[in-house]
Specification:
Elements (H helix, E strand, L loop, with lengths): L1 H4 L3 E5 L4 H12 L3 E6 L2 H13 L4 E5 L5 H15 L4 E4 L5 E2 L7 H29 L2 E6 L12 H21 L4 E7 L7 H4 L1 E2 L4 H9 L7 H13 L4 E3 L2 H12 L1 H21 L1
Helix pairs in contact: 2-9, 4-5, 5-6, 10-11
Length: about 280
């Protein structure tokens, strides 16, 4: 895998933590030239200092993916320095849990702007350059919840459906232009996204621990390895866990059963809320 990434110009969004941070460290081992974005400048500076101590070429930029101008300016800065972009790993995202009827509009707005518009902005700016240079690979992180509807994650799930759809179309459009597009659909990965998430009318600690303590949960490092393996193989859809793939297949081939089972879950959930 080192050959695929050594000396390549790579952008990693959401590189402060979770899957993004794990990708940064693994790509650094392979000798990539890294441009990392995130919202926490202090954490970003710490990551870059660590990479510089290992003689890795890396820079961090504080970018809020919700704002098109910030994304556009960042990509322009990378191109001024490097003149090309070989890979984009778009990992930035936020989560919102609970029933849709209980959310605040500002929370819905944040999820859609970050997950949908953020992905669209970065994909647009980088894809245009890759099409011009006739090569490149964009890897967008969606979710298993972007392949099948997950109750209590409705807005998050819908945002990741959008990420999946956008990436699929770009893969078709980019095929004749030398640009590759892959969509990553992780299952549950033990990352801070659950700690930083917003939970409407439900216990945050119980909700996030219920998710993170599943036996099927994997580390960001393992997810990152599988993502890089799928990237090298140019997989259209990169699964990090088998159960997510099986869940997707069950929804595709037996949608009525899938909906019935998920709907049945809501009754005990609401009962627990009343008793809390």
């Amino acid at each position: 895998m080192e050959k695929a990434f050594k000396g390549r110009v790579v952008i990693v969004t959401g590189g402060n933590s979770g899957i993004g941070r794990a990708l940064v460290h693994q790509l650094a081992e392979y000798g990539s030239i890294l441009y990392i974005t995130g919202r926490n400048a202090e954490t970003g500076a710490s990551i870059v200092a660590e990479l510089h101590s290992k003689n890795v070429q890396a820079e961090f930029f504080a970018v809020d993916v919700q704002h098109a101008e910030e994304v556009e300016n960042f990509v322009a800065t990378v191109l001024q320095k490097e003149s090309r972009i070989d890979y984009l790993f778009h990992c930035a995202g936020v989560i919102l849990g609970g029933e849709i009827r209980d959310h605040k509009l500002e929370d819905i707005d944040k999820v859609l702007r970050t997950n949908v518009l953020g992905t669209a902005y970065f994909s647009y700016c980088v894809y245009r350059k890759m099409a011009e240079q006739g090569s490149g690979h964009i890897i967008n992180i969606a979710s298993a919840a972007g392949l099948m509807p997950i109750p209590l994650m409705g807005v998050y799930s819908s945002s990741k459906f959008a990420v999946f759809g956008l990436s699929e179309v770009l893969r078709m459009e980019g095929k004749g232009l030398g640009v590759r597009i892959s969509t990553v659909v992780p299952g549950i990965v033990d990352t801070p996204i659950y700690d930083r998430g917003t939970y409407s009318k439900t216990d945050k600690e119980r909700s996030k621990n219920l998710v993170k303590n599943q036996a099927s949960t994997i580390t960001p490092e393992k997810a990152a390895r599988r993502i890089l393996e799928g990237t090298v193989r140019n997989r259209a859809v990169i699964h990090t866990q088998l159960y997510a793939r099986l869940g997707w297949m069950s929804y595709r081939y037996f949608p009525h059963i899938f909906r019935f089972v998920c709907a049945r879950y809501m009754k005990p959930y609401r009962k627990r809320l009343r008793e809390a």
